[in-house]
Design brief:
- The protein has 297 residues and is mainly beta.
- The chain has one domain.
- 3% of the residues lie in helices and 43% in strands.
- A nine-stranded antiparallel β-sheet has the order 7-8-5-4-3-12-1-15-18, covered by helices on one side. Strands 2, 6, 9, 10, 11, 13, 14, 16 and 17 form a nine-stranded antiparallel β-sheet that branches.
- It is globular, with a radius of gyration of 18 Å.
- It starts with 8 loop residues before the first helix and ends in a 13-residue tail after the last strand.
Length: 297
Amino acid sequence: MPTPAKTIRLIAAAAAIACQTASADTPAPSLAAVPKAARSVHLRYKSPFGDAAISAVEGSVTVRIAQERSFYMCMGFACGYCGFQQLSGGRRVFIFSVWDPGDPFDFSARPDNVPKARQTVPLYAREGVRINRFGGEGTGGQAMMDYDWIPGRKESVRITCGPDGEGRTAFTAWLADREKPGEWIKMATFSTVHSANNPLKQAHSFIEDFFRNGVSATRVRRADFTGVAFTDANGVRKPCETAVFTADSNPITTIDALPAPDGWTLVTGGNTRNATTKLWGAVPRGGKSATPAEGAR
C-alpha cells in the first residue's frame, strides 16, 4: 500500500495541474451536508525560470492546525512528493515517494506487476528511513520515517534531481537540519524511468484529510507554505513569487488560500470561509524571501 493516506500520491499532483473548476463562490454548506472528508487544497507554484529545466526545488511548511490522519505535503513535483503526515494515535512521519511510469489513477495497480526495468528503485536511505514499494494508486517507491514534527515549528525540504543512466532520473529528498541551521540532511534517493527535460516541473504543495469519517470534514486544517525557491541547471536560485490556488473535486467550499510572510497559507475544513482567493486564483507571495540553506549538493 502506498501510504496510510489512501488518496494522496500523484492524484494531488495532477489535481494541482488540471484541477477541478467547481465554484467556491457559494455559501459554506451546513455541517449536515458536508461530505466525509475536508476538501484537499493545493498551491501550484509558478517557476521563475518559466519552462527551463530545474535542478532543485525547496520549501517549508509550518502546520498551524493539525488533525489526525492528515497530510501536509510540503513539496511535490510531476512524479513524486515529500512532506509530513499525522497518523492515528498522534504518530507523525516524514514521507517521500516517487512513482513508476504509468497511470497514477490506476487503483488496481500492483507493484509486483511492474517489470524490473521500469520500477522505481532506492539508491540511498538514511538510517531510520523505511523503504517500500506501493501499489493501489499507480506504483512506485516510498520512503517513510517516524519524525516528531510539531505544529508551530517550521520544517523545510529540498528535492534535487539528476540523470541516472539512460532514460532514468534520480530524485533525492533533503530535510533541513534542526541542530545545524543552514544545512540539509540527505533522507532518501530514488531512481525512476523519467527522461523528460524538466523532471521537477509542476511543483506544488497541498493539505489532505485522509480520515474521511464525516467528522474530519468539520475540523480545520491550516498550514503556512513558505520559502519556496527554484534552482536552475546553472545553479541560479530564485524565489517563487506566485502560486495558483486549486482543489480536488470535493464540492464543499470550506477552503481558502491567502498570502503569508514569505509564502502562502492554506486552510480547509470546519467553518472556513472562502473569503480571500477563489479557485484558480493567483496568490502573491507575502513578505521577503528567506535566506537559502546550503549543503544540499
